[in-house]
Amino acid sequence: MAATKQKNLWYVRQARRKRRFTTLLTVFFILVQVLWVGVPIFMTVLWSLVDPNHPWSFPNILPEKLSWGQWMYVFKYTNILRALKTSYTLAPCAVLLSFLFSLPTAYVLGRKQIPGKKFFQTIVLLPIIMPGMVVALFLSRVFNAFGLAQNFFGLVLAHTLMGLPYMIRVLTTSFEAIPQDVIDAAENLGANTFVKIKDIFLPMVRPGLLAGMIFAFTTSIEEFNLTFIIGTPTFETIPTILYSFLGYNFIRTNASVVALIMMIPNIIMLFAVENFLKSDYLSASLGKL
Amino acid sequence: MKKLLVMMLAMCMLAGVAFAAGPSIDLKTASWDSIVAAAKAEGSVTFYAWYFPDYFKEAAADFEKQYGIKANVIIGDQTANFNKAIAEKDMQTGTIDTMIVGGQWVKTTTDLNLFYGPIRNILPDASKFSNNSWELQEGVLINGYLAPFHRNQTGILYDPDRVKDPPQTWAELVAWINAHPMEFGFCDPSKGGSGQSFVHTAIGALAGGLDKYKGDKELVQSKVANWDQVWKWFNDNKDKMTITVSNNDSIIRMNGGELAMTVAWDDNVKDMISKGNLFKRAKMYIPKMGLAGGGDTLGVLKNASHKAAALVWINFIQSREQQLKKFQMVGAYPARTDMTIEGTLLTEEDRKNNAIPWFPAPYKDFMIKEFVKNVLMK
């Protein structure tokens, strides 16, 4: 009797310890999120609302007066509306094209044994390893030669190029993770190539595909160098305006406004995709949901 | 079919040549009225800048109202603007017609032969600007290729609540730095002109004055032999000063309380105050030890497709009305010498007595490289 009581007590203590550990981890996670994400966003919001006639200066902890003055300035004196339109038309097109280009590449790299596979997996990452302006300067020659500068299709192609490495890398990993048993089972049951693509490959790579899409989308939204070199003056995107306040001529208040304009739709999209990701086909197929 | 293709190709080439050739008149000999007429026929001008979006947007609207020519203003980043212009240098027709040329890009762009000109003899108001500003910018001979459009001056910016008796001489500044470690800042000279100006003054104070470099077209090694002692001073005092990453960064750090005194450009300071990025109590002066001034210029790209419109735009920006408007909106001091301005951050007396010219470009280039090598990388 006493031994059973002792054992129960031990279980209770263990459970408590686990709960405490989970609480500690949760608090740590929240703290990191607040410091890492919350504080910068809060500061950005505050700086974007600093009244132009009441600077936020030392030793004031908070701005003296808040107003929409900085927002009005950005909307009045920059081409932000034109840039917003271009950015959010360009990004979905670049994501779609990245998907179409990367699907066959990722399939081969993920499922087939080809000579030099590791080499090709590294090569596709080159556009993100090299400095953006270097890529832009070299590519601008090619784009100019083929008449792709100053036109929308050229810009889509340029953004696709910058998003492709992420898309290929994530999709390759997703293709690699599909268990061969599932494919074999489908084949034994008479599934043809189309059925395999529709019912096995696409659903199972969907989480990876969505992650790749997020990367490709945000890369496109944030791309500056190529857009500036081959797109302006015909096209301006949000980063081309952001850099005018963030680069050499750093003006924190205006930069904060443009950064928020760029950030808000991205955050909304991230939450939407996160919701969509909840149905994890790969786990479901393995009975782990 | 083949014939049709050949004809189409020939037509395209002819159109290309005609387009690239720009206006049919010779701009260097044509009357100003015919240049304006050619500009109106071109219909638009594309202008690249990296600051004052408010002023340039309003100027573009005024320009369109006055001439019926659309001014497409692109506010980019300084380095990106020049990278783009250089990337398009060998194209028959570029996408930029005219652009601001910042001090640190004068030498590179002049060496690359990027601009059309000389434009000094074309612009009707050229005589209203100092001879020197048409000939020499940042110690580089520009021979009338670049048009002055505002003057700016570096000075010492300080917080009067923390600096009661701002230093005037080098010895006073050194004493102040020793008494207030890390509260004085200047920008990395490879990142901004205000830092270059401070190092330039330091060379004058520590290496036997600046007069000996005057008129040199090439760097004379014997004249820079004693610059080692300048780098030694910077290394010995590096822990007592703050080196910032840009002109604006120095101002931002002062606003945040990190710095009490810094070297800055007067127009930058005015702009930052008007946008709520610097406290209004800030004061600025040119110390007796001297600090250099300069000014940005405008250039017409050699492969611009709207050269006449670009010239009319430059003339418009140089006009009395626009020079005044620019000063009123963003505090940029006019480059014209035929107008007096009130309400400046720096006094006329300071400008007259304490503003000093840069030493020639080869020394400035050398100074930046040597500072990075001997101070920043040590």
Question: What's a quick, concise take on this entry?
Answer:
The complex is a heterodimer of chains A (289) and B (378). Chain A has 13 helices and no strands.
Task: Describe the 3D structure.
The complex is a heterodimer of chains A (about 290) and B (about 375). Chain A is an all-alpha fold. Chain A has one domain: Orthogonal Bundle (MetI-like fold), CATH 1.10.3720.10. Chain A has 13 helices and no strands. In chain A, α3 (about 80-110) packs parallel to α7 (about 150-175) and α11 (about 240-245) crosses α12. The mean pLDDT of chain A is about 90. Chain B is α/β, with parallel strands linked by helices. Chain B folds into two domains: about 30-150 and about 295-335, Periplasmic binding protein-like II (D-Maltodextrin-Binding Protein, domain 2); about 155-295 and about 345-375, Periplasmic binding protein-like II (D-Maltodextrin-Binding Protein, domain 2, 3-Layer(aba) Sandwich), CATH 3.40.190.10. In chain B, strands 7, 8, 9, 10, 11, 12, 14 and 15 form an eight-stranded mixed β-sheet that branches. Chain B has a five-stranded mixed β-sheet with strand order 2-1-3-13-6. The chains are: A mainly alpha (about 290), B alpha/beta (about 375). At the A-B interface, α2, α6, α10, α11 and α12 of A face α3, β2, α4, α11 and α12 of B.
